[in-house]
Design brief:
GO terms for molecular function: acyltransferase activity, transferring groups other than amino-acyl groups. It holds the Pfam family Acetyltransf_1. This is N-acetyltransferase. The protein is an alpha+beta fold. The protein has one domain: Aminopeptidase (3-Layer(aba) Sandwich). It contains four helices and five strands, in the order βααβββαβα. A five-stranded mixed sheet has the order 1-2-3-4-5. A hairpin with a 4-residue loop joins strand 2 and strand 3. The relative contact order is 0.16.
């Protein structure tokens, strides 16, 4: 666990550092459901959602971005009270509590923003650390997906 970590809203100048680790995660296609050939421009547009969406970064005492998360309205109409979130942690900082800190922050902020539920749309079952983390935070009960053959609608 990092001694000093701050979670704050992401700023435009954070993007190059964020994309530096996000790109590898996206290209690997193992733990994130975006197309592997997602461009930087597409990624930036998707990662910085329109309000009420939010984008956060976890930074260390020196201001180094360790991980990032975004939170979005998952549904409209009668289900507009449900949010969703996505997370990416720089692999160099994996296992240091960054994902947990981001998860706790996003859940708390979603409550403050008036959301009453959070639904994760794509958690890969082989990402066992993420599955365990989200279950421990009460977000994930049973729905995880197998990406072994690629993402599919079945």
């Amino acid at each position: 666990m990092l001694a000093a970590m701050l979670i704050r809203e992401a700023l435009p100048h954070d993007w190059p550092t964020m994309w530096a680790f996000m790109e590898g995660i996206v290209r690997a296609g193992e733990t994130f459901s975006w197309d592997r050939d997602t461009t930087e421009s597409q990624a930036r547009q998707m990662w910085f959602p329109e309000p009420p969406g939010r984008t956060f970064v976890a930074v260390d005492a020196a201001g180094t971005v360790l991980g990032t998360a975004n939170s979005v309205r998952n549904h409209r109409g009668g289900a507009a009270h449900i949010s969703s979130a996505s997370f990416m942690v720089d692999p160099r900082h994996s296992g240091q509590g960054v994902g947990r800190a981001l998860g706790e922050h996003v859940l708390a902020q979603a409550r403050k923003d008036g959301f009453r539920a959070m639904q994760f749309n794509a958690v890969v079952e082989t990402n066992t650390r993420a599955v365990a983390l989200w279950r421990s935070l009460g977000v994930l009960s049973r729905e995880v997906g197998d990406a072994a053959g690629g993402w599919s609608a079945s």
